[in-house]
Amino acid sequence: QMQLVESGGGLVQAGGSLTLSCAASERTFSTYAMAWFRQAPGKEREFVASVSWNGRGVYYGDSVKGRFTISRDYGKNTVFLQMNSLTPEDTGVYYCATGPGASNRVPEFYDSWGQGTQVTVSS
Fold first, then answer.
1. Which residues, including other chains, have CB under 8 Å from residue 85's CB and lie 6 or more apart?
2. 48, 91 contact by CB (below 8 A)
3. Dmax of the chain from CA atoms?
4. Cα–Cα distance between 47 and 82 in angstroms, integer?
5. What DSSP character marks residue 80?
6. Model confidence over 63-73: pLDDT tens digits?
């Protein structure tokens, strides 16, 4: 399984921005869809965004559409999540994952997961 390492989380005030990064260990990074999920305490893991292997397909969860942007850098084997206009409801642990298709929004379709990075948005 591909190893994934997230970074970039932290504490930010409402209305602020953060950029998360997820570095992948394998050159085959370019053949996989990549996704971000998040999980708040006591809640199920929620789909945030995904990008297809070639970057042409991009999908967002309804709660982040228009505020978050997912992108990938093939030279760095890294996927990014730019998060703007953050609200306290965006608080949670953010995970990146690899899978066969970017249109999948269910965690069970994704094979490899990072350890997560905490994002806390204060009001």
1. 15, 17, 67
2. no
3. 40
4. 15
5. E
6. 999 999 999 99
CA distances from 12 to 19, 68, 85, 118 (A): 11, 15, 10, 11
Q: Report the amino acid identity of residue 75.
A: G
Degrees, nearest 5: CA angle 8-100-55? 60
Coil vs helix vs strand at 99:
strand
- 51, two tokens: 């990008």
Q: Residue 95: name the closest of 8, 1, 18 by CA.
A: 8
The closest alpha carbon to 21, from 76, 69, 79, belongs to 79
> CA 115 to CA 68: how far, in whole Å?
21
Which residues, given as ranges, of the chain have pLDDT below 70? none
